[in-house]
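Submission sheet (multi-component)
Chains listed below:
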Amino acid sequence: MPKHILLNAFNMNCVGHINHGLWTHPRDQSTRYKDITYWTELAQLLERGLFDGLFLADIVGVYDVYQQSVDLPLRESIQLPVNDPLLTVSAMAAATRNLGFGVTVNLTYELPYLLARRFSTLDHLTDGRIGWNIVTGYLESAAKAMGLGQQIEHDERYDRAEEFLDVVYELWERSWEEGAVRADREARVYADPARVRPIAHHGKYYDVEGFHLSEPSPQRTPVLFQAGSSGRGQAFAARHAECVFVSQQERGALKKLVSGVRDEVEREGRQRDDIKFFMGMSIVTAATEREAREKYDDYVQYASPEAGLAHYASSSGIDFSRYARNEPIRYVKNNAIQSVVKNLTAAGRERTVADILSQELQLGGRYPTLVGSASQVADELVAWIDDTGIDGFNLARTVTPECYRDFVDLVVPELQARGAYKTEYASGTLREKIFGAGRAHLPAAHAGSNRRDQREPVRKAS
Amino acid sequence: MPKHILLNAFNMNCVGHINHGLWTHPRDQSTRYKDITYWTELAQLLERGLFDGLFLADIVGVYDVYQQSVDLPLRESIQLPVNDPLLTVSAMAAATRNLGFGVTVNLTYELPYLLARRFSTLDHLTDGRIGWNIVTGYLESAAKAMGLGQQIEHDERYDRAEEFLDVVYELWERSWEEGAVRADREARVYADPARVRPIAHHGKYYDVEGFHLSEPSPQRTPVLFQAGSSGRGQAFAARHAECVFVSQQERGALKKLVSGVRDEVEREGRQRDDIKFFMGMSIVTAATEREAREKYDDYVQYASPEAGLAHYASSSGIDFSRYARNEPIRYVKNNAIQSVVKNLTAAGRERTVADILSQELQLGGRYPTLVGSASQVADELVAWIDDTGIDGFNLARTVTPECYRDFVDLVVPELQARGAYKTEYASGTLREKIFGAGRAHLPAAHAGSNRRDQREPVRKAS
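Outcome: structure written.
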């Protein structure tokens, strides 16, 4: 039996997310992002399609690298305006029972004590369906908005992230023991003080002394997502991540990447499949291949490759407006996303702005795009899984919510017919749905879970 | 016609809020606070009773002053554990249409750039029904958890708050002009760059350069709540607050307080009724006075005056466990809530721990408690309004949600029969519901709104 494909819908609390310009399509509803029913309806649609999760990206700065300006991002709504993603979750959780929620939060501008409580709160309110996509940010515009003056250097961002995670693991996994909450009305004991202890972290970047404010939630630690693919990013993923996003277009390179990270995961003492890989993908489908091609041709008319280029400029830190159309893009050292810079400037395959616009940004975004009948799409997805060792897909939106409805109505039954997709949700938390029954918490070999093995003796209540 | 009484339900994302110990009552449901349906059901109940708002308190530290320990707070669940209140809002907003939400956020541990986006996001998702209760914190335990080492001194907290508000007003009121968002599909223009500008704040405590990440929301600035009643707190309220919480037990003193703040409000160039006063109150009611007394006697058996004392100890910064039962409480200089310290140690009326326990903490909390038939309660509420010049009440929960259901079913019709309560919601945002039609935004005379009168000339888009 083929393995079941994992599926996230990839979205963001804004108008233009990945495939830029498509908000101008007459059927696109992304301008409703401020309306709570836009989110509850989307969540219900995804749950009907048995999606594992809705993944919400975020950015806390603006894309001002291209043309050194935000004029284009504002006109084209390139992730600007962008609202807070965490605040949509409880409405969607109330409207669903099984859908998971993976939400991006940049830890660089957060205090671990408060962020830990936010995720615990959502893990309670969703009954164990929350995940955290850990990012550290890379935009100068964000640093200026936060009062940092300038962006922290790439590797130091990971040093801070390591320490930040040490702190939140202590809060989530160690401050409140199992059984600490008794909620015993007759005995008049809500929590047993002997089973709750303060943490005391004094590190290079953070000083945190105190009790976690939240009692243990169904998963304790949210399911940990990560997307870094620099050397440092991969090491971080191998240690911490349970789900990883990848966006390689080339199968051989992707297979190598996946296998390499799994090797590192093993060296960390974890199992190779303790980490799941999701590949970013755009899909345009219809009843027949011809109709799918027609739909794609229709969509493309509304796409904005230049908006895609402006987005790409901030991801890579390279202002493409300074290049002539046919001038090869050269490596530029900067603080942006290292994998994007490397990918763009890899030796032997230098590209020009004209190449990027014509080869990669037809739909306004850089993800691989599948166009075809439901049957063709299903075959292709299964082939990607088989060829590369990834576990599932992060489906970027095109014209929304139509693209998700097409996928749910057309592709999901095809995948199910191939035995490559679940026919009902597994029970339990998001972590159990992804990794199996009995796996509500981080497994024992995970860096965060280890905290629970180093328990101090139970102290006496005074 | 008497003026319409404004009503907030006072609650918190935790088990024990104000009237401690009542979670042990067999009918109390506060231990369901982690369950999203607890919140959506509560919101719908309050909306049925035409409540103006649900007000959610918060605290980001623990109450470790009494006995220098958190053992009692844990056992009695004295606002510990406590989850994040903001994250419940979208679920409740999706389940209602008119109820407002006033949420406490301590600004001391927030970056203005991100907090501004959080409130804008909620103002969008609630369609203009969000309010912010501005607090600056006072707990040493919070400072240690945040890495500050020790609590910032009382008056400096207000200096920081003033500057913080300057920054968020710039983001909410000035970064995006009216009409900046065109969302014009044909013209392919989402926002007009000529009508969006960055702020550049460089102050003593904050440096913030950037564009507000959110487009203008229905209210722009959330309705501003505040509770400080020290000299500095009152000056802050006079300048910024639109709704103020008071908890004076004595009508003469309350009338003087209200009138004094309104005088200050006028000196700030605002109207006397640009600020609404809500008094904290616990109510136990039933069909007859006798049944109400019986219900109160039943509740009291479950109350924990000692838990109330532990809460009081952190509010005042005074460890009552160090006093003999009959020893008068003396003034102690500390960083806690100044009005509580002053109130407790006022010359000529020193009290002992025994006094406090017997006179104030019968229901485990310090708010005045009304016990009586619906008719008696309605008369008493109207009398408080008439005698003191306040505008409404903040109803603390006792046994929940029973206490709110009793109020909605019994007292609301009595108030309506007296013409003292609305019979349907006004349309519009929370600010319009409280202050009248056409008042979606801060009025021109408000310190935040002034920003919009100092507009720079519209810049040319590049």
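Remark: Chain A touches chain B through 84 residues (CB under 8 Å).
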